[in-house]
Amino acid sequence: MNQIDQYVDKLAKGTISRRGFMKQLIALGISVPAINGLLASPRCAAAEAPKYGGHLVAAHSAQSPNDTLDPAAAQAGIDACRDLQLYNPLVWVNEKLEPIPELAESWETKPGAKEWYFNLRKDVEFSNGKKLEAADVVYTFSRITAENSKSPAKPLLKDITEIKADGKHTVKISLANGNMDLANNFADYHTCILPAGHTDFTNPVGTGPFLLKEFIPGMRSLATRNPNYFKNGLPYVDEVEWFAITDGNARLNALLSGDVHMIFEVDPKALKRVASTPGVKVASTPSGSYIDFVMMCDRAPTDNLDLRLGLKYLIDRERVVKSVYKGYAQMGNDTVVPPSDRFYCDSIPIRPHDLDKAKYHLKKSGIKEIELHTAEACGIGATEQALMLQQEALKVDFKIKIKQDPSDGYWSSVWMKFPFHMSGWSPKATSGIFLSIANLSDAPWNESQWKNEKFDQLLVASQSETDYAKRKALYCDMQQLIYDTGGTIIPAFMDFTDGISEKVKGYKPLPLAGLGGLKFHETVWLS
Amino acid sequence: MNEPGVTTRNEPRPNRADDEFDTERLAITGPRRLELGTSAWVGIGILLLWLFVAFFGPALSPYDQGEMISYDSFSPMGETGLLGGDFIGRDVFSRLLFGARMTMGLAFIATVLAFLGGIILGFTAAAAGEWVDQILSRINDAIMAFPSIMLALIVIASLGTSTSVLILTVCLIEATPVFRLARALGMDISVMDYVEVARARGESVWWIVRREIFPNTLAPLAAEFGLRYTYSILFISALSFLGLGVQPPQADWGAMVRENLMGLTYGSLAPLIPAAAIGSLTISINLIVDAFLALSNRDISEEMI
Amino acid sequence: MAKLIIRRLLLGLVTMWVVSLMVFGTTEVLPGDVATAVLGQSATPEALKAIREELGLDRPALIRYIEWLGDLATGDLGKSLATGRQVTELINERLGKTLILATLTAALAVPLAIFLGLISAVFPGSFIDRGINTGTLALVSVPEFFIASLLVLIFAVILNWLPAISYITADQSLLKMLRNLTLPILTLTASIMAHMTRMTRTAVLNVTSSSYIEMAILKGVPRLQIVLRHALLNALSPIFNVVALNMAYLISGVVIVETVFAYPGIAKLMVDAVSTRDIPLVQACAMLFCGTYVGLNLLADLFSILSNPRLRIPK
Q1: CB of C165 within 8 A of CB of A258?
Q2: What is the model's pLDDT at position B4?
Q3: Which of the two ends of chain B, N or C, has the fewest CB atoms closer than 10 A to its terminal CB?
Q4: Would you give the distance in Å from CA C298 to the centre of its chain?
Q5: Over chain B, what is the mean pLDDT?
Q6: Do C276 and A257 count as a contact with CB atoms less than 8 A apart?
Q7: Is B218 on the interface with C (CB under 8 A)?
Q8: Among A323, A373, A374, A378, which would you mutate to test the B interface (most chain B Cβ atoms within 10 Å of its Cβ)?
Q9: Burial of A10 (0-12, 13-18, 19+ CB in 10 A)
Q10: How far apart are the first and last CA of chain B?
Q11: The model scores a pTM over 0.90
Q12: Considering only residues 201 to 230 of chain C, which have any Cβ-Cβ distance to chain B shorter than 8 Å?
């Protein structure tokens, strides 16, 4: 086989990209028109065209008999994916986490961002034939905001004062406070749209790309292609099998041996292995998920600012990224805004790993030792980060005692109870949401109990500010406040690292969640 | 479920004072010679080695158990440390030495406590009246009926993952077969002729215990101790695998296997070495116990639960 | 003999009653309850109180115990607190899978163990005997999760002969099912062989030291015949016991194998139930496991009695 044929073969198999193919051929001296001719040839063209059919098998990392097909009640990632298989939200997001149309084809607001109008597509049908109308959206959202609703998405929609249909295909939403990012809230899988009045979730009815064939909570689900999907041509695969393998090693082995096509969350330590195994590859996306050290500001000893600053200088962020996440992470600056976010403040330099400053602050605080609580439930790499901090502390004569708690029960008995403990977060649709959930003075999930009036005012102002530059300035001020006195150490934002088989094509990574925002099934095909 | 007369353990031994029935050749031969086979000596050798490591290991270790000596995971042998690095860049060899003390020590304490409890309660059940015996036996059976990992899970979920809870859990689970054995031995003995004779002679209870009971029970009890010890080690490592055992950064062989399991796919030694350590320790003890029991004409399988 | 059997049954029931007390007691002391587990991060004092009242968790322990015991006797295992589904439904989903794995493993391990044990007994002290001895000891000395991981590495990842995770469905062919279950079956077999093999050997050898065997030897009966015809039958009692013990383990204790192979069995169900403090489910599983143990032991004793006429007369 001559060289050109080799590359054509590689392109056909998908082991190099189109761009890679062109680069190689140019290096060989082939002219661009000739390359284009090759690309147009039946063999190359066929290689890139999506193929219909096939049975896709994908595995998440956790499941339980509590798994549900009711989007409003969904608790976990495994539910999120099923919801996105069977239903659609109003809005979706692109790789910059900007909202793009889904069931809503457009939306607008008046100045002040308090009144919103969402215009629905007119060509969408539910799986029972009923056409999508505004009343369905009203029903779906009202379920979540209802007085006795137990939905985890309730805080997300708490500012909504009124939802009503404005004509057959427009929904009017009124807010108590202006919110420029409202559309992003509706990309959340909890808000997937249900037909009005529907309550039987053992027989789900949705607009989604797949129809439910079989579902055993805690074991697996099977869904088949919806031939009537409103996005013409999609999806490609005939069937999606979706379940979870909780043991990380077992999950990895399932991918490596070809039992499953895609797995969620590959431990960074195994990434080298995945990258070097033929037939599988790593799919990574920078994201806003992080693991943090929480220093509660309302109790001793962590209410001491010097102690907090000392610990912040103690952590070696670069080493966390390199050693714990093998480079698949970005350094954090102790605020919830990741570098990949459009509102990240570049002007605040990342706090360096400075043992002298650490020693100075720790000495000034007068505290010699502290106990750190952690658990595997905080996320992959939590224990390693804790161990690393412990080792650094030894270098400045400070003692950190690590207490590993069982994951089971961590969130109810340890989190937000002990002064110094670890926690973990998956990214939200916008950093603004994050700031209000985690840093606002009276937010229930303000882990560090850091309360700053100025911050609260800035946050409210930024929600209704329509000018991008002004918003960015407000965000910068907020980040500076957290940087100076805040109670969380965020050394790194972890990339989503998933593993997928080379047979899977058309995969689009998304910073929203692993496996393409858990919506991979819509666009992938099997070669 | 252990009614006398149904299991072979409680059948009286053939009363052959001097003659022995040679099971090897299925023939009657002369008195059995007292000798330990080569396998027993191998076992003793390995055990002594590990005991040495348990006592002196941490002092001889090149690095501290929590020290990170490499940026990389699973760095190969020789490059970092004698046996390579573990998943987070610590020295496997050092952690092995520290872990010996933790693994062997924890299991030892738990087994000793289990033994104390099991023997005291077992002998009591044998010596006291029918009612006490029934109550104790039913409770014991109830605990045995529970799958051990589930029981451990519930106890640890209730009381936390501290070392003392771990010891308590293992002790509870390992005490039950000890109880059974002690009870059976106690019952066997109390009806033996020579005890009755001694009693008739007017010897005190203590004398009877010391001179008649102890020598006859020592062998099976010692063997049982060895066995319970190995089960404790394996059980603690199983708990560590499920995240319930020894917590980081403590070095413990079972926990080391678990946290480095991913290295298996890289061909790293990190998970293999502690597993081999556990295996060699338990095999050596089993070999010793095996030989020991052969001396007293019993078999290890009768003690295995 | 009937008297003996009835006595056994009654003892078994008493044990089960003690078990029920133990199960109920331990689930009472579990910190946190289903209310906190279900609400998780969204737990507020009012929501907790509401859920507790709804589920009847605020009534005194003794009343709940008696109620529970009564329900149990009529076969009502209650509703899972976390999912609202019937406990019997949840268990049924998984029980079948566990039983399939247990049965297939026993079908391999038990005959193999007895066979090897017999060989050791027929040629005691020989090279074969020592080999089997050391081999089984080695298998039981290594942690089970390690054997499992090693098997997966070799056969699934490197050689790609067998799947890394074991999933079986009703519509699979028998061959596919066996293929999927090979690795877990091998792992479990390795775990339980040692005990059964050794016990077979011991029991047979013990019996061969009895007088009537002496008689047979003196009469010149060949050794193989002695072992198979005369000794085995009388050695069955302890063998039944050890098989029962291991069968109980196969049904209730295989958490590690279920974790490594992602096999949806009952052991994992109980582990998850403890995590979510789903008390009715935990209690039902516990009673099921203990009942299995007690029941299997009873069966073993029964077979022993039947096989050995001497034992039919209580001492």
Answers
A1: no
A2: 35
A3: C
A4: 14
A5: 77
A6: no
A7: no
A8: A323
A9: middle
A10: 13
A11: no
A12: 201-203, 205-210, 213-214, 217, 223, 226
